[in-house]
Each structure stands twice: as C-alpha cells, then as structure tokens.
Amino acid sequence: MARKHGKDGKHARNHGKGSSAASLSQAQSATRMQKPNRVRPGQPPSSALWARAASEIAGVAPSLIGSHLPISPKAAQGIVTVAPGETFDLGSVDADATGGFEKGAVKELLQAERVRIRTLQERLYAEHRRSVLVVFQAIDTGGKDGTIRSVFEGINPQGCRVWSFKVPSSEELDHDFLWRYHARTPGRGMIGVFNRSHYEDVLVVRVKKLVSEEVWQERYGLINDFERLLSLSGTTILKFFLHISKDEQKERLEARLADPEKHWKFDKADLVERRSWDSYQQAFSDALTRCSTPYAPWHVVPANRKWYRNLAIARTIADTLEAMDPHFPEADEGLAGLTVPD
Ligand code: AMP
Ligand code: MG
Fold first, then answer.
1. Angle, alpha carbons 58-46-36 (nearest 5°)
2. Does residue 282 carry a pLDDT above 90?
3. For the chain, is the Cβ count within 10 Å smaller at the N or the C terminus?
4. Is the pTM of this model over 0.70?
C-alpha cells in the first residue's frame, strides 16, 4: 500500500523534516495483548504474564526475562491511568482537574521532584543496565514542549536525549513506520524522551487519511508488540497523554497570535487541524484504549493547568525511577589501598 503522506508534507509547518534530536541543554534553551488482562492500572504485570509474552518474541534472550521487568508504579494524583483491556473515553477526563493540589504550593514540590529525577538519573546512567522511554502525545498546543522544558530542568544532558518527530522525511517513508522511532529508543543508562512518537502513525495519519484504514488498523497491535520488545529488553516505558479542552486550545492559539515572541510557534495549519477536533479526540481515545498494556500503560494527564501538569508528570517519572531502584555499579576491587601519584 503506497503511503501518501510524502506528498502531503505541507500540512504542518516543519522546521526540518523527519525527526530531530535535542540534548537536554538544547531542549532547555529552547500483543497485541494476548488477552484483556486484569492488571490494575499502576500495578506491575505478573512474572507469568511476562514469561508468556517473552516466549512469543523471537530473539529475546531468556536471560532478560525476569531480570528486566518493567516498572509502572501508581501515577501521581489526578492522572488517569488507562486500564489495559478496557474501553477508554477521553471525554470522561476533566482537563481542568488538578488532583487536589493548590497552585501556591506547587513550586517547591516541583523543585523537589526535579531533584529526585536528577539524583536517580545519575544512578541509572552509572548502572548502565536499563533505560527509560518517556513518550508525550497531545493535540497541537497541548503542552509537550513546555512539559519537557520544565520537568527535565537540571538533568544531566549527557544521560538524556529528546527527539521531536515531525512529518516523516522521504527516507523515513521508505521504511516501515516504526523504523525511525526504533532507531531512537534509549540505550542502556539513558532516558529517552519522545516529543510526539510512533502514535502519530495512528493519529494524524488516521485523521488525515494518509494511509488506508486497513493499514492503520494493523498498527495498534504492531505498536504493542514494539513496546513489549522494548520492555523485555530493559526499557521502562512511560506514556503521557496531555489532555486539554477545546476552549483551552483556543486560548493558547490566541495567546500565540497576540505575542510577537510566540509567533514562531503559531502554525496556520493548527487552525485547519482544529476543525478536525472531534476526529482527533476519537483517534486519541482509540489509541489509549488499544495500546494501554501492563508493560506500557497510558497515563492521561489533565493539562489545562500547566503547573499541575508539570508536577504530576515529574512526580510520576521520579516515582518510576525510584521503583526501578538503579544502583551505582560495584567499584573495582582494591580501591581502598590505592593512592594517586603526584
Ligand atoms: P510540531 O510538533 O508542532 O513541530 O509539528 C510536527 C508536525 O509533524 C505535526 O503537525 C505532526 O502531526 C506531524 N507529524 C509527526 N509525525 C507524523 C507522521 N508520522 N506522519 C505525518 N505527520 C506527522
Ligand atoms: Mg505545532
């Protein structure tokens, strides 16, 4: 099936096609499920489920099974974790929710979470055994850039890479849809951040009819298999969907129009996309329903309030890193007796 979106590259302004990387320093400046499972949101899957899932994936070393179980601790207050196997309606989440937090108290709390992330990241990097992939999806103006800038402030850029996925380049379109994402998954010790992700291929691609339904329908299962492979290979996956209301999007677009310093972010194509609001909401709900798995559950973050969004996401990432419990590697033997020559 020929893919059409090579020709349609103008539907969104694109600062360089394809996918672009940013180290954190840059970013700061700028199973198919085997069966519906009964794992509660926020609970890690059982080893039995893992063993079964792993045995289905050719090429996964048996030694990995059990030693790299992914961690999904309970998400922060106010976040809705999509229960695997259950139909999810995005309309059921109040985008204004703030998890019971007060705005005034958030500054210090957020700073504390950043320190936790920074401290644990150092251990993850030193341990060099596992990795974390943080995926952000949202409608235009949903706050992906702002979240990344805020949550990862102060993190060691060497241990983190941010990838922003744009309209695919012609080289990317010459490959299977997962190719460009797989090439950018985090290696051992790293935190990888996807600003947009492989989910675009069942979102914008579906809404804009860039491939046939037959093609995108198959992709949910392929995405689940892809994420299962990553999990079994030692990558803990955290997927955040930033949920804003249609009114909030209007305000954010108006704010971009009103402020000359934000004009660079204003994309006329966003106004066209906004007309497809309902189709996007439907595509989001379907992706959240079909791709929330025990090993890579979707977390829906009420995101009208930026201060709440940042805190809730930072806390969930910090909790996840803590549950992974990364350790500094064993020191070489005999260090105690060593002296450094002049
Ligand atoms: P932005 O994130 O605002 O810089 O915009 C990136 C644009 O790339 C958005 O309009 C996305 O919908 C588009 N995009 C990202 N991934 C894909 C994809 N796989 N196919 C088509 N368009 C995409
Ligand atoms: Mg944009």
1. 80
2. yes
3. C
4. yes
DSSP state of 282: H
Ligand 1 in reach of 167 Cβ (< 6 A): yes
Torsion of CA 148, 130, 295, 284, to 10 degrees: 20
Separation of alpha carbons 147 and 166, rounded Å: 18
Q: Is the Cβ–Cβ distance between 20 and 166 less than 8 Å?
A: yes
Choose which residue among 196, 208, 223, 267 to substitute to test ligand 1 binding: the one with the highest number of ligand atoms within 8 A of its C-beta. Answer: 196
Ligand 1 atom at minimum distance from 12 CA: 10
Question: Looking at ligand 1, which residue's alpha carbon is closest to its atom 23?
Answer: 167
pLDDT band, residue 23 (cuts 50/70/90): low
Tell me the H-state helices in 97-244.
106-127, 144-151, 170-173, 179-182, 204-207, 213-232
Separation between Cα atoms, residue 292 and residue 288, nearest integer Å: 6
The b/e string for 262-289 (b: 16+ C-beta within 10 A; e otherwise) is eeebbbeebeebbeeeeebbbbbbbbbb
Query: What type of residue sits at position 32?
Result: R
Ligand 2: centre distance to CA 212 (Å)? 24
For residue 95, the Cα-to-chain-centroid distance in whole angstroms is: 19
For residue 140, report the distance from its CA to the centre of ligand 2, in Å. 5
Tokens at 328, concatenated: 């500094």
Residue with tokens 């002049």: 342
User: Do strands 80-81 and 298-302 pair parallel, antiparallel, or not at all (unpaired)?
Assistant: antiparallel
Between CA 293 and CA 295 the distance in angstroms is: 5
Distance (angstroms) between ligand 2 centre and the Cα of 297 equals: 25
| pLDDT tens, position by position, 238-259 | 999 999 999 999 999 999 999 9
Is 229 in a helix, a strand, or coil?
helix
